[in-house]
């Protein structure tokens, strides 16, 4: 039996259909499963550098809670993306309180920002967090953090103790002296987490898991 050859219009229609399906799958994967993210600042150095690209697991965020040490992409509180660094509790904030401490913000603003930040989880719900010389003291124990850049001598390097509220997470950049994070605008709400960064794919010399 002789197979009738496809017409040019039929082949074009098939190609358009395949491209549309492929595009739909790609958009679906990005929207619900894995999303690429470009590092916009040096706040996560030396772990992640400016311009590096990472993959973010969006689906895993629906099945498990973040853990201490996870690197998350999330929406910060409204006001965190400005010089105001607003706190959700009137009268609270990262105010300087002597040479060795700052008063923490215990809760973020109620609204979230539309921007995306990327930081590391250093404290979860119920954890007591204090910062000394840029190092995390979690529940009274100094944490091992070989991945950070030293904080220096800025006032942001020390923070009085805070108990992380239920369903909230205390986020910090690995570049402790150059990161705008929960030290300034408080913990973030669990619902504001977009997903966990799990691998770097660009540039080639930095390809690997996180």
Automatic annotation (TrEMBL):
Domain (Peptidase S26) spans: 13-202
Q: Which InterPro entries match?
A: LexA/Signal_pep-like_sf, Pept_S26A_signal_pept_1, Pept_S26A_signal_pept_1_CS, Pept_S26A_signal_pept_1_Lys-AS, Pept_S26A_signal_pept_1_Ser-AS, Peptidase_S26
Q: Where in the cell is it found?
A: Cell membrane; Membrane
- The catalytic activity of this protein is classed by the Enzyme Commission as 3.4.21.89
This entry carries the following GO cellular component terms, namely: plasma membrane
Report the catalytic activity: Cleavage of hydrophobic, N-terminal signal or leader sequences from secreted and periplasmic proteins
Q: Which GO terms describe its molecular function?
A: serine-type endopeptidase activity; signal peptidase activity
User: Is Transmembrane helix one of the keywords UniProt gives this record?
Assistant: yes
A Pfam family of the record is: Peptidase_S26
Give the record's GO biological process terms.
Answer: signal peptide processing
The reply to whether Cell inner membrane figures as a keyword in the UniProt entry is: no
Q: How does it sit in the membrane?
A: Single-pass type II membrane protein
- CDD domains from the entry? S26_SPase_I
**Sequence similarity:** Belongs to the peptidase S26 family.
What is the official name of this protein in its record?
Signal peptidase I
Name its species. Conexibacter arvalis
